[in-house]
Amino acid sequence: MMKNHLSKIGMVVLLIIFTKCHHHHYDDDVVTNHDCPTGQLETPKLLSPDDSITLDFPRWTTLIWSSVPGASSYFVEIEFQDIIHNSYSDSNGAEESFVTTEPALYFQGVGKQFHRWRVVALGTDKCTQSDTTVWRYIYYKN
Fold it and tell me: What does residue 28 show for φ and ψ, rounded to 5 degrees?
């Protein structure tokens, strides 16, 4: 009974996070904006899921990172592996980018393949940002 109650609370929280998220497609320059110095904000720490985790169907996954003081939003980049070319986000456009005000993102993985994700904390202006986190990897097996 308690587990079901916590699951319902978790789904409500995730729904709130998901609805506060804006879906965008960005160029890499947003993540590594050469016109602005990086490192002005603390780099987020990726918390969940663990790196190199294998997940099963359904592919809905919550990405969680640490909240950064001074950040007004977070840019989240997710790339899908192009198995044919053994690379990520080649010219196939297999990339999703999101901006969210919360230190979490609920998203649906695409297909039986590797995904990778990273985060940049963004300040209130367009030129205040953290360094980009390292990539973290997820494998969806079904």
Answer: -60, -25
3-state SS class at 110: coil
Tokens of 61: 């996954």
Query: What letters, b where the CB count within 10 A reaches 16 and e where it falls short, cover 1-16?
Result: eeeeeeeeeeeeeeee
CA-CA distance, 89 to 92, in Å (whole number)? 6
Tokens encoding 18: 């998901």
Fold of the domain spanning 2-140: Immunoglobulin-like (2.60.40)
The pTM assigned to this predicted structure is: 0.72
Contact (CB, 8 A) for 78 and 97: yes
CA 43 to chain centre: 14
pLDDT in tens, 42-89: 999 999 999 999 998 888 999 999 999 999 999 999 998 766 555 565
Domain assignments of the chain as residue spans, ordered by start: 2-140
Q: Where are the alpha helices (DSSP H) in 20-103?
A: 28-31
| Kind of pairing between the strands at 53-55 and 136-140 | parallel
The end-to-end CA distance of the chain, in Å, is 29
Residue 7 is given by DSSP the state H
